[in-house]
Amino acid sequence: MKIHEYQARELIATANIPVPHGAMVTTVDEAVEAAERLLGDNPPVIVVKAQVHAGGRGKAGFVKVVKTVDEVREAATFMLGNRMVSPQTPPEGLPVDRLLVAEGVDIEREIYLAITTDRARRTNTLIASAEGGVEIEQVAEERPEAILKVPMHPIDGLSDYQARELAFALGLKGKQVRQFVAIAGNLSELFVRSDASLAEINPLVITPASEQYPDGQVIAIDAKFNFDDNAMFRQQAIAELFDPTEEDPDELRARNAGLSFVALEGNIGCLVNGAGLAMSTMDIIKLHGGDPANFLDVGGDASQEAVTEAFCIILGEKGVKGVLVNIFGGIMQCDRIARAIVSAAEEVGFEVPLVVRLEGTNVEAARAVLAEAQGRMPTMSTAIDLEDAAKQVCAAVA
Ligand code: GDP
Ligand code: MN
């Protein structure tokens, strides 16, 4: 699960990571009011930032660093009135409904700091770079040695000495080191405590020297978090941050029906039970020259209603030219799937070719159900095994 930057900033603030004040707004007038309030504190600059679940906002023109209320109005009008297109959005971009208006800071240096799980090492790992900011992807690609990695101990977490070594490796000096060590420690504890799968601060900046901070202040000016969906049952406060308007509507619909669904680019809709079987079904479609339109796992024991919902979602996807059903009935009874296929056909009407491969528990009963319905479902055919099914559906959409 993803959250917005303004939510992530509140989260890190509660973990004692310094971050400038700001307010989330949904209209130009609110943006102007927020800016007027913030300007009372005399910040060097104000930032206006689109709140969408995608990065690359800076380069897309959806992070504006400004000085006056008029500029805030202009930036807010632009962002709320245009879709944001970046390498991290779909080609048509994303609508912007929320903005963050925040106190800005003067920047001496930008550092990258993140934590994620390194699956190869099986540990949570700090990732940092002295070259943070909007070019971090390019740095990672062209000069991977500029990206530092520090594994966290599974029980003890991040040690102070590790954070100190990292601070020195990033070129931090004097009082910056202690500030960085506190931030890295707080972020690592927050990561574990909140069941995060990604915690990223890019950039973590160093401000110019001031009276209060003679070596500059180390402060976060952007934050991004992803969380483990499987942990949301014990993370109620985080779960409440969920913003359904940022989700793909079909993925949301599937989630509400207890299905796991991911929309893809191809034209063959797939309805499968079990994630492993779904993956191999996609592979075999590719092997025979086809292109899956989605990944859909109805689970080991989906209800007839859930299966019907799954069909409705697949058939509602634009670009679906054929559907492959691949069910192995272990816990799932094949006749239940067969009845769901027929009821979905009656509900939404199949016009595209439908290839069905069923195997396992109650398969004979299932075949009888399909045979009985064949007359009403002229585009349906059955397959003898997975390979046959893949060949049939690929031929049907070619
Ligand atoms: P992203 O591009 O979506 O990751 O958005 P960021 O919040 O990271 O902002 C992008 C860039 O805008 C940063 O790397 C900074 O260079 C600049 N920026 C953001 N906030 C401020 C600020 O408060 N002051 C200054 N001077 N620049 C900022
Ligand atoms: Mn950023």
Give an account of the 3D structure.
- The chain has helices at 5-14, 28-39, 57-60, 69-81, 136-142, 160-169, 175-193, 236-239, 249-256, 275-287, 304-316, 334-348, 363-373, 386-397, and strands at residues 22-25, 46-50, 63-66, 99-103, 109-118, 123-129, 148-151, 196-206, 218-220, 224-227, 260-263, 268-272, 294-297, 322-329, 354-360, 380-382.
- A hairpin with a 4-residue loop joins strand 5 and strand 6.
- Helix 11 crosses helix 12.
- Strands 5, 6, 7, 8, 9 and 10 form a six-stranded antiparallel beta sheet that branches. It has a four-stranded antiparallel beta sheet with strand order 1-4-2-3.
- It is 38% helix and 22% strand.
- The chain is built from 14 helices and 16 strands.
- It is α+β, with helices and mostly antiparallel strands and 398 residues long.
- The model has no long low-confidence stretch (mean pLDDT 94).
- Bound molecules: guanosine-5'-diphosphate and manganese (II) ion.
